[in-house]
Design brief:
The complex is a heterodimer of chains A (about 250) and B (about 130). In chain A, about 35% of the residues lie in helices and about 15% in strands. Chain A has helices spanning about 35-45, 105-115, 140-145, 155-160, 160-165, 175-185, 190-200, 210-215, 225-245; strands spanning about 5-10, 20-30, 65-70, 70-75, 90, 100, 105. In chain A, a hairpin with a 2-residue loop joins β6 (about 100) and β7. The termini of chain A are far apart. In chain B, α1 runs antiparallel to α2. Chain B has about 130 residues and is mainly alpha-helical. Chain B has a single domain (about 15-125), classed as 3 helical TM bundles of succinate and fumarate reductases, CATH 1.20.1300. The chains are: A alpha+beta (about 250), B mainly alpha (about 130).
Chain lengths: ~250, ~130
Amino acid sequence: MAETMKLEIFRYRPEKEKEPSFQTYKVPFREDWVVLDAINHIKDEIDGTLSYRWSCQMGVCGSCGIMINNVPKLSCAAFLKDYYPDKIRIEPLTGFPVERDLIFEMDDFMTKLTEIQPYIIRKESEEKPLEEGEYLQSPAELAHYKQYSMCINCMLCYAACPVYALDSTFIGPAAIALGQRYNMDSRDQGRDARQEVIASHDGIWECTFVGECSVVCPKDVDPAAAIQRAKVSSTVDWFKDILIPWGKKK
Amino acid sequence: MSVYHRPVSNIWWLKRKPYILFMIRELTSVFVAGYCIFLLVLVYKLTQGADAYGNFMVALKLPSSVALHLISLAFVLYHTITWFNLTPKILVLYRGEERIHQGLVAGTFYAVWAVISFMVVWLVLGV
């Protein structure tokens, strides 16, 4: 008899029920299957009503983030064999409101991402005319921020962050890491504009350095480090303002 | 569309080992602060004369006091080691174009800690 595995999946169908429940499915166990393959099997062969997000199936798009046994993971990168023969419990990413089954609402993250202004900002007076060419950057300058630029917006770091789960006003790991990515870019001049969000009450100072955001990140972005480094820079700014108030940037 | 907001349990930190370890690290701060207060009390007793200081030292040798000190030592060690291990995340240093190895950053803190501890032991015990 072929080997099987049980998947206990969070179900929420707002048109039918007020409270979510869990539904258990039995799927074939295959060595080369990831959890997303098993969920696709359920959708295609067992229960077409199951709703979830996925796209690239290769750890690039960041769409298929779910909680697997209480740990945020990309379902396309989590192999069934790592859990076999135990039952796997699958839920939508923690900390976000659930729309349907494994689909959660990501509007809050999108708003925060916009607030951080994740793009190169130049002072108007220092903008080069197009005919003068690109703003060049050395490999060493690139190395300073490259790690933070690898984010795929999968939101696993938010799901791992207890601060965000307890207080969703927190700007959160990915958005702050992305802000730091641009702050550390030698071509960028927008740090002051981003500081209003990053160094605000809901920004870096909410972070208690649990560090799980960096542990679960599938791209080794290390948002926890980005946040702590932003805390150091902001503290230096504060001391500079106090000690040399005449040195304020215009 | 009606969305479902999942409640966060008060015991969320018991659900995964990393969260438990984080909460222990947070708890150790109480012992660090407590020991700072203890040292202030020790200095205060010194200002109160030889008798007051002597009585305080006698009280410190009680088994309950020794046990409390050992518990505090364990928590303060946990606090120090976990924070020292996190320093390379915060202190990202470059030598030219190359990033200084994370072990070297944390190792510097451990080395300074060892030197200061040795000096304290040398001063207190005269070893």
